[in-house]
Design a protein that fits this description.
The chain is mainly beta and 182 residues long. Helices cover 0% and strands 44% of the residues.
């Protein structure tokens, strides 16, 4: 039988954890499966975990980046709908909500011509908060008075106006912490 002898082991990652730049070190996934219908054109928070500001990730270092990935499943009824989604973050519990305006973080969604249809809108961006601790996220929406408004997770096969999620779709927000040495 062979015996392995080692004089030394050297960690070339230059950090105490052994992570290399770009390593995802934690993931927080939030999903919303209920249907939600709302008319109007004023900016409002998305329902539940998508908009209440409780989606949070705790960074391990102020050098690390956060990757935000969202998918919003939006259905429609009889005419058309046009939605604007905005993304906000807050550093720490006592921080202020700041709109995330770079990386094309204002998303528009258009859905028309077929009752019961559904469209997915996805976003992904990497954010350098330069902050260690809890970082909170939320999404808002603005509709259009002439269209049908927000219909989250409303997916019907029979072209009805029923607020149900026949296909069990989910609107999601995923927060990932990405290790950075510097």
């Amino acid at each position: 039988m062979a015996t392995l002898k080692v004089n030394s082991i050297q960690d070339t990652s230059s950090n105490q954890y052994g992570f290399k730049n770009g390593t995802i070190i934690q993931v927080r996934n939030y999903l919303y499966t209920d249907t939600h219908v709302r008319s109007g054109n004023s900016e409002e928070q998305m329902p539940n975990i998508l908009g209440n500001g409780l989606a949070v990730i705790t960074t391990h270092s102020n050098k690390n980046h956060i990757m935000l990935e969202t998918t919003i499943q939006s259905g429609q009824v009889s005419t058309w709908t046009h939605m604007l989604y905005r993304f906000y973050y807050k550093l720490g519990e006592g921080g202020s909500w700041t709109q995330w305006t770079d990386a094309n973080m204002n998303s528009y969604q258009w859905n028309s011509s077929a009752s019961g249809s559904m469209r997915s809108t996805s976003n992904m961006a990497i954010f350098d908060p330069a902050y260690q601790g809890n970082i909170y996220f939320r999404i808002t929406h603005s509709g259009n008075n002439s269209g049908d408004g927000l219909h989250i997770n409303k997916a019907n096969s029979n072209n009805s106006d029923e607020a149900r999620n026949e296909y069990n779709v989910a609107s999601t927000m995923t927060l990932s912490e990405i290790w950075q040495d510097s």
